[in-house]
Amino acid sequence: MLAGVNLPFYSTTMTWPFQIYGTYHRRNDIHKLYKGQEQSGISTPINCPGIFIFTGGGANRVGYQDVFQKDGRLRYTGQGQTGDMKMTAGNKAIHDHVKNSKDLLLFQQTHKTGIVRFRGLFTCAGWESENQKDA
Prior knowledge:
The structure is a single chain. By secondary structure, the protein is mainly β. It has a single domain, classed as PUA domain-like, CATH 2.30.280. 12% of the residues lie in helices and 33% in strands. Strands 2, 3, 4, 5, 8 and 9 form a six-stranded mixed beta sheet that branches. A four-stranded antiparallel beta sheet has the order 6-7-1-10, with no helix packed on it. A hairpin with a 5-residue loop joins strand 8 and strand 9. The longest helix has 9 residues. The N and C termini lie close together (11 Å). The model has no long low-confidence stretch (mean pLDDT 78). This is ScoMcrA-like SRA domain-containing protein.
């Protein structure tokens, strides 16, 4: 069983250097500046006011089923490839981001290696469980 969150887009006065739909090199433009996990779909850099989430690319090949809804929300599959997902690590960071005063920045993989497109600031609007295949 995997859990998913609905992430509606929201707009605020951005203090981040990313432009909506701008493309960035994940390693050089994001992790070099803010650190965090470079290989994970959820990156939680220490001492950073944001959490970076990445969707697309090879995610569907390893069992993640992220889907953009017609209303702009993203149905995002959390962290964990086998068995029931747990509310720990990156999943907990997303779930608690408002309580912890962290922005949630969404990037979408492009077809170019290492290049991601900034989709904007999102918020976790809920959490639910559903059955999906293990990776």
